Amino acid sequence: MVRTPLIAGNWKMHKTVAEGLQLAKAMLPDLQALEGVDTLVCPPATALMPMSALLDGTGVALGAQNLYWEPEGAFTGELAPAMIAEFCSHVIIGHSERRAIFGESDQDAQRKVVAALDAGLVPILCVGESLQENEAGRAAEVLTGQLRAALSGLALNKTSALVIAYEPIWAIGTGKAATPEDTNTLLRNVVRPTLAGLFGDEIAQGLRVLYGGSVKPDNAAAFFQQDEIDGALVGGASLKADSFVGIARAAQG
């Protein structure tokens, strides 16, 4: 099944509104010239409203980095799904930094996935193993457990409703990247079959699975040449126009 590549930029806690708009304006002409590639930027929450206005009608999608699962209430500092959906089409859920720094669990991820889907948002569910788990040969066990915990009980009727991002924690922000071949094998033998067990093979084959972890213009093409890798969730390299555009160009094939 042909899956359109998706290149998503996670800006994390970088860029003021003015800086973010400047970055987006610098990237827009080149991103709009791409063919056969979907692009998405996920700036800090403070920039979502002005970024939505800037990106409207450009073909570049907008996503949030997080949400809370309750529709409203006394949850100081949190953003409800409907608040995100006013401006965004996508939302990142379960990023390793949310899990490691803020103590978010698989159950939290499941609640957020459900809330995002109910709000009409496309969740980008992040899964990945630590260095210790990888070296102990537990990557398959960890990924299977994370996917089942976050997605069991869900019913998907279209493949555009969910994106999976495989991000080996040991490769995020370290300059180390998993090899394209090893990543592809893990997605083919573990992630895709687990998704098939949850949603059926037809849905599983249509879901996009991204790679995240020190993706750069000079290594992106090697990842995108792998059959099971459908794009990238880009961190540091998304903070510079030329590097993010370079990665997106590499996804054109």
What's the helix and strand layout?
Layout: E1 6-10, H1 17-32, E2 38-42, H2 48-55, E3 61-64, H3 81-85, E4 90-93, H4 96-102, H5 106-118, E5 122-127, H6 131-135, H7 139-151, E6 163-166, H8 180-199, H9 201-206, E7 208-211, H10 217-224, E8 231-234, H11 241-250
Parallel strand pairs: 1-2, 1-8, 2-3, 3-4, 4-5, 5-6, 6-7
Number of strands: 8
Strand content: 5-15%
Going by CATH, the homologous superfamily would be Aldolase class I
CATH class: Alpha Beta
* Estimated radius of gyration: 17 Å
Unreliable sequence segments: none
Q: Report helical residue fraction.
A: 40-55%
N-to-C SSE string, H for helix and E for strand: EHEHEHEHHEHHEHHEHEH
Q: Looking across the biggest beta sheet, what order are the strands in?
A: 7-6-5-4-3-2-1-8
Secondary-structure arrangement, i.e. CATH architecture: Alpha-Beta Barrel
Number of domains: 1
- Global structural class: alpha/beta
Q: What about the largest sheet?
A: 8 strands, parallel
Q: Enter the CATH topology name.
A: TIM Barrel
The separation of the N and C termini measures 16 Å
Tell the overall outline: globular
Description:
With 253 residues, this protein is an alpha/beta fold. It has a single domain (6-250), classed as Aldolase class I (TIM Barrel), CATH 3.20.20.70. Helices cover 44% and strands 14% of the residues. The protein has 11 helices and 8 strands. An 8-stranded parallel beta sheet has the order 7-6-5-4-3-2-1-8. Helix 1 (17-32) runs parallel beside helix 11 and helix 5 packs across helix 7 (139-151). The radius of gyration is 17 Å and the shape is globular.
